[in-house]
Amino acid sequence: MTTEPTPAHIARLIDHTLLKPEATTADVDALIAEAAELGTYSVCVSPSMLPLVIPAGSDLKIAVVCGFPSGKHTSAVKAAEAAESVALGADEIDMVIDVGAAKAGDFASVESDIAAVRSAVPAPTVLKVIIESAVLTDDEIVAVSQAAVAAGADFVKTSTGFHPAGGASEHAVRLMSETVAGRLGVKASGGVRTLDDARRMIAAGATRLGVSGSRALLGADAAAGSASAGY
């Protein structure tokens, strides 16, 4: 019998996210404080909010979006944006693919786009690839996930959370997980709002979660348990 992940365990999978265009420096400072309190893995912010001040002694990582939210930037612009973010302290980059290229079946261009960003931000920077899975067919999800593997990414990620078609689904997460087969992580993002949502996504294969309402998802007992979570 598999034990359900506790709120404290789930916290260590969360990128605590604030990507609203109206976000202020004070909002991001509050995000960081909340992330440290809740024991999340990282904060995820827009590149204009860098550099961030992380509390002393904290292991909180900094994730930054790239080509966000449309993905319709040139590869050179995405690469430059990613490189600047890393220079300003980002540990992880969440880039958006050109979804239109995927819809047109031009997966070579998708792979090239990802590879350009990967080249600009080599390991140990973690590169996540946002595929906007709600817009894609199953065959397109598989092909884009394969392109991410071939281009050297570290994660495939379901969604920006900004597309009207929707966010993460268990079906998409499961398909992405089966396609990358442990070679990459899988991040479920967009519409993950409750513990049940999080547990379903983890069961489907998610190894990271993008969450803006982390406190509401985790509940009041999460921070108390975070220190003894074990990972």
UniProtKB/TrEMBL annotation:
This is Deoxyribose-phosphate aldolase. HAMAP family: DeoC_type1. It is an enzyme of class 4 (lyase). The gene is deoC. Its main location: cytoplasm. Catalyzes a reversible aldol reaction between acetaldehyde and D-glyceraldehyde 3-phosphate to generate 2-deoxy-D-ribose 5-phosphate. Pfam families: DeoC (PF01791). PANTHER family: DEOXYRIBOSE-PHOSPHATE ALDOLASE. It comes from Frondihabitans sucicola. NCBIfam families: deoC (TIGR00126). Signal peptide: none annotated. It catalyses: 2-deoxy-D-ribose 5-phosphate = D-glyceraldehyde 3-phosphate + acetaldehyde. Its EC number is 4.1.2.4.
